[in-house]
Every structure is written in structure tokens, then in C-alpha cells.
Amino acid sequence: HAKAAGKNTYAIFGSHMAELLRKRRELEHDLRAAIEQREQIEVFYQPVYSALGEAACSLEALVRWKHPTCGYISPTEFIPIAEETGLIHEIGIIVLEDACSVLSELPQMTVSINASGLELQSPAYSLRIMTALANRGLSPERLEIELTESVAIGDNRQLDRSITILRSAGVKIAIDDFGTGYSSFSRVQKFAVDRIKIDKSFIDDLHRSDSRAMVAAIITMAQAKGLKITAEGVETAEQLELLKGLGCDHLQGFHLSRPLARAGIISLLQLQSSATA
Ligand code: C2E
Ligand code: MG
Ligand code: MG
Ligand code: MG
């Protein structure tokens, strides 16, 4: 009877797999259509605050897919599909264009965008960035590119070349989700970057002394190398105070502001400037 049970398990497993595959193909098809018709792809912006001031000084562009029947689908769900299908390049272009138009509209702000390793591995990528900036007469220093630690530690000559080109043009480079990879410290050593963003998982655990020690060590290392530090995923007033005390430069998280659509960002900034005027 074990045999029968086994067979049954395979049947269930098989139909589950088939269902997953069908869903996956459907999402892939819908994503392609969404990119072609463009309206379903939106770019939200999360404000980043200086530890010194009250006002947002920077914005992180975060892509959103508003699916016609499923509603908003998280980028953690559709970015991997975009990477597997090559659609990531198209998404990157949409986000880049939107970010550049925000930079034009808000001359006091800097903006960061998230780059996939696949984009950085493409020789067209750095040229595309430089062209988008030049078309609007934007200073390259106002754009920052975030790459995750796992991308940064990979060994790819074209990726290194893209970063060198962008950095020598003045574009800033940040390591995102710092602390979640492996050879992070050595890679940051080898590789010139401007900023590290401490991963939310460390911020979540700040009430623990070992996590506080880890964050303090990251900040000390970053400062010794002249790097800026952003803490991501700040959700409480306690975390905010601890991070300020540890010498973190920039802070980002739901406690300060959620990612907002462009209109929301503009009214937030208007509110801020009238509060400080
Ligand atoms: P990330 O770049 O590390 O972005 C931070 C993520 O944490 C965002 O999720 C943001 O909404 C969320 N977050 C910020 N503050 C808090 C907080 O206080 N609490 C919690 N629970 N979450 C917070 P989101 O927008 O869902 O993006 C997830 C990831 O998807 C991003 O992580 C990034 O890796 C990727 N992603 C987003 N937009 C793009 C894009 O345009 N291109 C590429 N290649 N990847 C993107
Ligand atoms: Mg990021
Ligand atoms: Mg991150
Ligand atoms: Mg992340």
C-alpha cells in the first residue's frame, strides 16, 4: 500500500507542479503585456532622511506592478521573472526614465535606483544611464545605483566595467541589503563604492546586543573607508534613536515614510518646506 500511497503523492505533486507552472507562464505573459502597454508599471519613491535633519534628502525608486485582476504584485515576486525572461532591461528603462523626470522636477533631491546584476552585466547599461542624465542636463552625482551584495560579490568583468564607467562619470554606487551576503567586507575593500545600506534584518534585531555590535562594526568599517551608511527598514522610534546614536548617516523605513506614488512625494515635500519656512 506504500506503493499506492507513493503513486498518489506523485499525482498530487505532479498536479501541484503543473498548476505552479501554469501560473508562472501566465504571470510571464501578463508581465510582457504590462511592459508593452506601460500603464501597469508604476514607480513609487521612498523618502530617505538625514540623521541630522527633519527633511527627506533623497528618494529610492521602487517599481510596482499593478496587475489588472491581481492588484499590486510585489517586485520580489516579479523581478525574478523579469530576470529570467530578459524583461528586466525594459523595466530598468522605465524606472530610469521616471527617476530622471523626478530629478528634473525636484532639484533639491537625489534619487537611487535598484539595478539587477543582469543590467550591470550589459555593456549598454552605463551608456543608457549617462544618456538619460545628459538628455535632461542632470548632474550624475544626483543619481545613485543600488546593487545587492550578492551581485557585488560575483565575479564579472563587464559588471566591474559598468561600475567603473558610472563611478568615474560621477554616478554614486551603493551596496544594498548589506550584511546578508558572504565575502562582503573583502568585496567592499576591493571595489570602490560610495555607500552601504545596512539590511533590514539587522535593524529588526537592534534590541539585541549582538546585532547592535554588528551594526556598530559595519558603521565603523564604513566610516574608516569614507563610505556613507543608510539603515533600511526603520520601523520604530527606538530603532531610529539607536541608529542615530551609532552614527548612521541616513535612515529609511516605514517609521519615517512608506514608499509613495509621485504625487504623494510632491505633497510630502511641499508640507516639509512649508513647515521649515
Ligand atoms: P530593496 O531595494 O532593499 O528595497 C527595500 C524594500 O523594503 C522595499 O520593498 C521597501 O518598500 C521595503 N521597506 C522599506 N522600509 C521598510 C520598513 O520599514 N519595513 C518593511 N517591512 N519594509 C520596508 P519593495 O518595494 O517591495 O521592493 C523589494 C525589492 O525589490 C527591493 O529591495 C529591490 O531589491 C527590488 N526592487 C524594487 N524595485 C526595483 C527595480 O526598479 N529594479 C530592480 N532590479 N529591483 C527592484
Ligand atoms: Mg534598494
Ligand atoms: Mg535593501
Ligand atoms: Mg532588498
Give the integer mean of the pLDDT values. Answer: 91
Q: Give the strand order of the largest sheet, numbering strands 1, 2, ... along the chain.
A: 1-2-4-5-6-7-8-9
Distance between the amino and carboxyl termini:
79 Å
**Given the helix and strand composition, which structural class is it?**
alpha/beta
The distinct ligands, each listed once, are: ligand C2E, magnesium ion
Determine Rg (CA atoms, Å).
Answer: 21 Å
Strand coverage percent: 15-25%
Low confidence ranges: none
Count the beta strands.
9
Percentage of residues in helical conformation: 40-55%
Give the overall form. Answer: globular
What characterizes the major β-sheet? 8 strands, mixed, barrel
Order of helix and strand elements from N to C terminus: HEEEHHEHHEHHEHEHHEHEH
Protein name: Diguanylate cyclase (GGDEF)-like protein
Domain EAL: 24-273
